[in-house]
Every structure is written in structure tokens, then in C-alpha cells.
Design a protein that fits this description.
The protein is globular. A two-stranded antiparallel sheet has the order 1-2. It contains 28 helices and two strands. It has helices spanning 13-18, 39-48, 51-60, 65-77, 86-98, 117-130, 133-145, 152-164, 168-177, 183-195, 199-208, 214-226, 230-243, 250-263, 266-279, 281-284, 286-298, 302-311, 319-331, 335-347, 354-367, 370-383, 390-402, 406-415, 423-436, 439-453, 457-469, 473-485; strands at residues 25-27, 32-34. Helix 27 runs antiparallel to helix 28. A hairpin with a 4-residue loop joins strand 1 (25-27) and strand 2. It has a domain at 419-490. The chain is mainly alpha-helical and 497 residues long. Pfam families: E_motif, PPR, PPR_2. InterPro entries: E_motif, PPR_At4g14850-like_plant, PPR_rpt, TPR-like_helical_dom_sf.
């Protein structure tokens, strides 16, 4: 059963060992067994025993659905549902953390209206995480009935529920009607709007925020990054640091790295690198180190990327680290180095995934390492038993096409399963035919493309150019006329010169 909450944040390991035995609970090898007690005896046992005794067993068997059912039976037979004592509320809170789908979550009428705000906040967060809108609506109504209309934590949970469920207007309405708001309330709304793609609304809320925190800055920067508005994301990042003196967290850095990479902003990457070193993020968070490797490579500085990678200890390097450096070597045309890194990765005991194989195949393609690339593709299928996707096939066909092995490339393209095949594969092959002047295959491939997607002006133009390069001007003119008759369009080329 899914566990959304981590109760060990609230109870230490010493508490667990101190309360492992419970007088009225006994454990069998397969599941938790509750001794048969009368309701009065069970209630008396609970009153005599600290509630953490029960809680420790709840946590210990948090993945056992049968245990949850037996706990529920005990609560019902002991009569604890009739009065919400402090002990019972503490126990119920733990059950909600361990079992978000615990039966009372679906049967709100059995909940005593005297529950505290802590319980309602937990329930609302569970509904948001599990996308249970109808129970969430019932909880919202119940909070109004019991007088929590103005409670900032409960109302913040309601804002999060509506935002997570996509009910933007309801989230805004609850937010606007709140007499008091904490910074968490503002951040919840901004984050919800960003995830819904409502960046302009999120920015308007951000600009209204009386006291911005690093969380709100990170959320709005993330919104611009998600929508590929990288210059604005980078501008906000510098504004946060330079004008407001806000210190970025690890999450902030992870959010801005994609924008730095897309802009190729090497100086910003170096500044972030220095900041991460100063704050100890690079040493403590492997995600920061991996992002630096990828960012330096995409900014065109493979030496810095390799330097960051080499500084990592063998124990810290994970599969993402190796994949990042292999991908970096690949994009810089260093196929031999990428292949060497792949072999070292395997020696270190890391098992490649489909992303790693895609990087190494691309490296072999750009480096002209055809036989090595074929061996890696065989390893992908046979040794690792990974089903190739269209991108793996595309890299393989591109590799063979660059090497002039067009017949092999056409054969592989023809064998790609229909459910993943697309025209991109055939256009890759068509480009190789154009480069190597194979007119007959180019005509076959073009007709295959037209049958799959229909008319596209670029395909006709390319085919016409292939015939013209071969001196067959009549055929070239024929393909131009076919383009005119098909009413297909071609985007005109533009120059910034």
C-alpha cells in the first residue's frame, strides 16, 4: 500500500525499540494478530499503555493491508470512535500517514467533528496527493462546518487540494477569501499555477507577494524554465541573487541548470559552480554534480565537464553521472572517449539503461565507429534485454547512413515494429541517400514517406535536388511539378545576414 507520509520524522528509532512490546497485541510470523479483548478491557489497556506502543506497531507493519484492517477492527471494538481523545487522535494521525487509503478516509461520517486542525490538514494533503477530489470537497465542507474557515494551515491545504486537482478558480477563490496568509500559502498557489501552465497568473501572484521566499523565487523560475523561456528564467535568477540578496538552495540550482544549458551561458554556469562549491552543495548533493557535468558539456566546455566528473569519488558516481559524461563526449564528437567511459562504467558495476545506450550509439554515429555501434546495439537487445525504441533505431540508421551502408540501414528501417515506426526514420535515411547520391533508394524512401505522412514540400525538394545532382534534370523537374500539384507547402529559408 502506498505510503505518503514518513512517520519516522516524528518518532525516533530509540522510541521504536523502547515500545516494541505491547501487552494486548501479539505478532505472528505472517501478520499482526490482536488478542481477543472485550471493548472495556481494550480501552483500559490503551489508557494504561502509552499510545506510542500502538503507534510503533502501526509503523512496523505499515506495508501490510491486513494489519490496517485489524487495527481498524480494534479501534471500532474498543469504542474509541465514539470519543476523540488525545490518544486516539495521535493514533489516527499515524494511521493516516502509514495508510492513506485507510478506511476512515473513505467514510468521513464516522469521523468525530472534534478533530483538530492537524488531522484535517493531513487528510486534505492525502486527498491532494491521491487526486481524491470528492472526499476533498467533503472535507472542505466539514472544515467550514466545524469553524476552520479562518485557520491558515487548513485553508492552505484546501488551496493545494484545488490547485493539484486542476480547479484553478476554486483555488483562487479560497485564497482570496483567506483573512490571513502565510508564505506557505503564497508558495502553494504559485507552485500550483506553475504546474497548471498558468505562468502569467503565477507571476501576478508572485509580484503581489508581500515577502518573497527562496521557495517562491524557485517556483516562478521553474515556471519560466518549463515553458522554455530561458532568458527570463536566467534574468529572474540573477535578480533574486544580485538585487534581493536571496541565497539559492539546491532546488533553485537544479531548476536553473536547464536554462543555463539551453542558453549556453558558460559564465553563469561557472558562477553557479563556484557558489555550489562555497555552500557545499557540490559535495553533499550528487544531483548538483551531475547537473554541472551536463551543463558544462552543453555550454561547450567538455574539459570542465570532464574535470567535475574526475573529481567525483568512485563511490559517489552513479548511473546518471556516467550517462552525463558519456552524453557530453557524444555531443562533442568524442566517440572513442564515450566508448571508453561506457566500459569503465560497466567495470565499476553500473548497469546501463536505455538513455545510456542512446548516448553511446549517438557517439558511435558521430565518431564513425560503426562496428562498435553495432556491438552496442546487440548488447542492448541481447545482454541487457532492453526493447529498443524509435530513438535507438534512429541512431543506428543514422550511423549506418553516415558510413554509406545504405542497404543495411534500409533493411533495419523496414523491420522496425509498426507501433513505433515514424517518418523521421525514413527522412534520416533519405538524407543519407542524398549525401551518397543513391537515387534509386532515395525514390523508394520518398514514396514510403509520402504514403505515411502525405505531402510535405521539403521531401519533394530534396528528391528534386537528388536527381539534379545526378544530372537527371527531367526527373528533377518532374518532382517539382508533383510538389506544385500536391498543394504542399515549404517553409522558406531565412538568413540573419
Amino acid at each position: 500500500m502506498l505510503s505518503l507520509w514518513k512517520p519516522w520524522k516524528f518518532l525516533s528509532s530509540k522510541t521504536f525499540s523502547a515500545f516494541e512490546t505491547l501487552q494486548f497485541l501479539s505478532l505472528s510470523s505472517s501478520s499482526l494478530q490482536i488478542k481477543s479483548l472485550s471493548p472495556s478491557a481494550a480501552s483500559e489497556s490503551l489508557r494504561r499503555s502509552p499510545p506510542r506502543l500502538v503507534i510503533s506497531q502501526v509503523i512496523k507493519y505499515a506495508t501490510t493491508h491486513k494489519a490496517a484492517q485489524q487495527f481498524r477492527s480494534f479501534i471500532i471494538t474498543s469504542g474509541l470512535l465514539l470519543h476523540a481523545t488525545a490518544h486516539f487522535i495521535l493514533l489516527c494521525n499515524t494511521l493516516l500517514r502509514c495508510y492513506p487509503l485507510f478506511e476512515p478516509l473513505r467514510r468521513f461520517p464516522s469521523f468525530p467533528p472534534s478533530y483538530d486542525t492537524f488531522v484535517y490538514s493531513f487528510l486534505l494533503h492525502s486527498c491532494a496527493d491521491l487526486e481524491l477530489l470528492l472526499p476533498g470537497l467533503q472535507l472542505h465542507a466539514l472544515t467550514l462546518k466545524v469553524g476552520f474557515r479562518s485557520h491558515v494551515y487548513v485553508q492552505t491545504s484546501i488551496v493545494r487540494l484545488y490547485a493539484a486537482s486542476g480547479f484553478l478558480l476554486d483555488a483562487l477563490k479560497v485564497f482570496d477569501e483567506m483573512p490571513d496568509r502565510s508564505s506557505v500559502t503564497w508558495n502553494v498557489l504559485i507552485t500550483g499555477l506553475v504546474k497548471l501552465g498558468e505562468l502569467e497568473r503565477a507571476r501576478a501572484v508572485f509580484d503581489r507577494m508581500p515577502a518573497r521566499t527562496v521557495v517562491s523565487w524557485t517556483a516562478i523560475i521553474d515556471g519560466y524554465t518549463r515553458l522554455n523561456r530561458h532568458e527570463e528564467a536566467a534574468g529572474l535568477f540573477w535578480r533574486m541573487v544580485a538585487h534581493y540578496g536571496m541565497e539559492p538552495t539546491e532546488i533553485t540550482l537544479l531548476t536553473i541548470f536547464p536554462s543555463i544549458s539551453n542558453l549556453g551561458a558558460l559564465k553563469i554556469c561557472q558562477s553557479v559552480h563556484a557558489y555550489a562549491e562555497k555552500k557545499g552543495f557540490k559535495a553533499s548533493d550528487v544531483r548538483i554534480t551531475n547537473s554541472l557535468i551536463d551543463c558544462y558539456a552543453k555550454c561547450g566546455c567538455i574539459d570542465s565537464a570532464s574535470g567535475v566528473f574526475e573529481e567525483m569519488s568512485v563511490e559517489r558516481k552513479n548511473l546518471v553521472s556516467w550517462t552525463s559524461i558519456i552524453s557530453g563526449f557524444t555531443m562533442h564528437g568524442m566517440g572513442a572517449e564515450a566508448m571508453e567511459s561506457f566500459e569503465m562504467m560497466e567495470k565499476e558495476g553500473h548497469k546501463a539503461n536505455r538513455v545510456t545506450f542512446l548516448s553511446i550509439l549517438s557517439g558511435c554515429s558521430h565518431g564513425g565507429l560503426v562496428e562498435e555501434g553495432l556491438e552496442f546495439f546487440k548488447k542492448l537487445v541481447v545482454e541487457y534485454q532492453i526493447e529498443p525504441d524509435i530513438m535507438h533505431y534512429g541512431s543506428l540508421i543514422d550511423m549506418l547512413g553516415r558510413a554509406g551502408r545504405l542497404e543495411e540501414a534500409e533493411g533495419i528501417a523496414s523491420e522496425i515494429p509498426m507501433e513505433i515506426a515514424n517518418v523521421v526514420i525514413w527522412r534520416t535515411l533519405l538524407g543519407a541517400c542524398s549525401f551518397h547520391g543513391n537515387v534509386l533508394m532515395a525514390e523508394r524512401v520518398t514514396r514510403r514517406i509520402l504514403s505515411m505522412e502525405g505531402a510535405y514540400g521539403g521531401d519533394y525538394v530534396l528528391m528534386s535536388n537528388i536527381f539534379a545532382a545526378a544530372g537527371k534534370y527531367g526527373e528533377a523537374e518532374k518532382w517539382r511539378r508533383m510538389m506544385d500539384c500536391s498543394n504542399s507547402t515549404k517553409v522558406p529559408g531565412q538568413s540573419l545576414v
